[in-house]
Fold each of these.
Amino acid sequence: MTRKQIAALACEELEKIYPDVECSLVYDKPYELMFAARLAAQCTDARVNIVTKTLFVKYPDLEAFANADIAELEEDIKPCGFYHTKAKSLKEMAQQLINDFGGEVPQTMEELLTLSGIGRKTANLVMGDIFGKPAVVTDTHCIRITGRLGLTDNKEPAKVEKDLIKLLPPETSNHFCHQTVQFGRDICRARNPKCTECSLSYFCRYYAKNNKVR
Ligand code: SF4
């Protein structure tokens, strides 16, 4: 079976299980997704959602973040960890969005990567979820699962992204990545994946190897 065929089957199976899955970060405004994603580095989405529930009320717009007292902002986001660098990013991002992009979230990878603390993963998330553009968000679940399936031999996010771009239909790549996150939480866990319950096992490289199917 070719990688392209495996990718098509994976899309098909995940669509059956998770047709309506969405990003688990809660946000109203485009920049809030970016800020929440920045806070989610090394933290769970669930915890970020608890923090942002009050954070986005206390700081209702970009100006509020741009003018925030940094020590106070650090306290506000402390439960998310790495609060010194994350607070600095949020404040700087707000200033950059106001000064360089007229208060709007930019739409291209090149522009998004100029923002403080934003890497390809968050940039792809924004491009896919906010602007509906083809995007591959290579988070830890996506990397693990696509590796197990045999869609990539890489572990480095940028390389996995390159591999998956060649295999996934552009119109569904962003959705596929959200599906892998949920699938990674429910079935294909990092430790003890539930292979015997998995509907992807018949084309999974990891399963074949561990069960000597081929
Ligand atoms: Fe993951 Fe196992 Fe399913 Fe393969 S068979 S996708 S390793 S849960």
Amino acid sequence: MIFETHAHYDDEAFDDDRDLLLSTMQENDIGWIVNVGASLKSTAASIRLAEKYPFVYAAAGVHPSETAELNEENFAQLRVHCLHEKVVAVGEIGLDYYWDEPDHEIQKLWFARQLELARAVNKPVIIHSRDAAKDTYDLLTAHRAEEIGGVIHCFSYSAEMAQAYVKMGFYIGVGGVVTFKNGKKLKEVVEAVPIDRILLETDSPYLAPEPNRGRRNSSLNIPYIAQQIAGIRGMSYEEVVSATQQNAARLYLSEKGRREGE
Ligand code: NI
């Protein structure tokens, strides 16, 4: 079955049919879903979904664009969330320089704090990095992220950069962009990195793959992504689903996976 490693079912885009949609996942071969927090509020909502559905897991973290909400008091609360038994990662955390706000120094400060939080709770990280290749890599290197492990979600940088992250013990998150006509760079990444380092993800409700580009995304679209990866690598669809499922289980569901970068 498919392991969906990145979705946001707490998003208001799913307010009308969230439970109906989630109840159809397993019959459609979606075996596991990580619902990723992007703020304190969505972290709490992700955990509620994980408590309700056995096949849903949560990630707890504050997205770089939301870091202005953080302070010592609610950071302590975030730490408590991270210790929840169904929280499998700290994320999504990172740097987003596409937007000027919050100030880059604030983003860097809370990225570093959340990296150290992941180390303290012994869980991998889910990294969001946009237009911030150098600072992200430098910060992860400075914090010895190879000891923490994780995934660069919605990977948007070069094949060389992807290989540097593989060397760091990280996984590469591949979603709908790989099906886009202008997704050439990501196709090169998929060709360049070992299959045992690729994770399937949607970022639902965003980034729906072709042929559903522009519509609301859901994990039910993952087969289009897996099919595309299979075509690029000359593998079968089943081999891609199986390899990426094992990768995700290694990273999120095994104790060993959390420290394999060491
Ligand atoms: Ni996301």
Amino acid sequence: MSSTLVADSIRKADSQEGQTSLELDAVELSLVLPTYNEAENIPLVVDLVGQALAGVNWEIIVVDDNSPDGTSQVARHIAQENPRVRVIRRIGRRGLSGACIEGMLSSSAKYVAVMDADLQHDESLLPRMLAAMRSGHYDIAVASRHVEGGDVGDGLSKIRSWGSDLANNLARNLLKVTLSDPMSGFFMVSREKVDALAPQLSSQGFKILLDLVASAKGSMRIKELPFVFRERQHGESKLDTLVTLDYLGLLVAKLFNDMISVRFLMYSAVGATGVVVHLIVLKLLLASGGFVFNQAQLMATVVAMTSNFILNNRLTYRDRRLKGFAWLKGLLTFYCICSVGVLANVGVASFIYDASPIWWFAGAAGAVMGAVWNFVASNALTWRRA
Ligand code: GDD
Ligand code: MN
């Protein structure tokens, strides 16, 4: 082959490469789709998004928590034919906020959006959200069901929409968040903002939008766009009434400027119920007349520890819930940890009481010490991450 021919073919290859690299131009918009059992919906959503975003350089990031219905395999199939689709499969973790955060942080685009993958969110809103972001006047565009023209439609049950109204009012009044629909799971935000706020976000729960806006402390310029919440066609909702607890936890954590974690708050609330359980059982046993005080006290302690374990397993650590043999093992480690907690409690209290005999101060310091120990130890041992 003559050298001119070689040079020619290189030039050709170059220009071909030039073309492909044109197509692979930097992605402008990453759309995060958190999924749990959405195998039937994923192909439909990808199609609809593609139609809605014609002419835009977009990508979809499916963040799947290892759904048993094979959502991630379905998504990977699509990704093999459509390079705009990426998949993150998370194992041993559950949670909407955490999935959204992970998806957003895996993006390098200028803008990131989060949308439900179950067709309840109207994808035809995406171009308008993008236009708002491109205008440079806003840091976040939120699809709202509560501004003029928006509607919850029939997509929410009566009780859910009542709870949702209550939560909205709390957010507005307590956190001074000026969002008409802080519970919305559909928004677009500049990725730079997300990167800046990421360390403050709570991966627990499902209120990622409220978390973002509250953490930004008024620095977000917000655009709200109305939309109508559609009804689910396939599969079912994963958000139960317990998510309201996460929500309240997030409100309190933000009120205290993130000094205390949502989990610790829930753990403490459960601990408080334990004290009540303890006293009731103690009273009943003593009233039965069959036990001396020490026996009754010991039994009440075991009942209270067990009830704390069950509640923490169902509420505080819902996302790492122990089942079967792991449940039993967890309960036993929990007993051990709490026993050490009692020693820490009494130790600290008497140490302080010896130094300055103020009974309530020494007592409270001991109790706090015990609670912190219990939390740190059971967080690391009983419900350690898979
Ligand atoms: N990765 C992951 N992990 N995704 C999840 C999880 C999870 O643990 N839980 C839910 N998802 C996904 C679902 O697959 C769906 O794509 C999306 O998150 C929303 O979940 P749904 O279960 O459909 O929620 P919903 O319709 O009841 O609630 C919607 O409306 C609320 C307003 O009342 C969501 O948009 C909420 O964010 C919103 O607050
Ligand atoms: Mn839904």
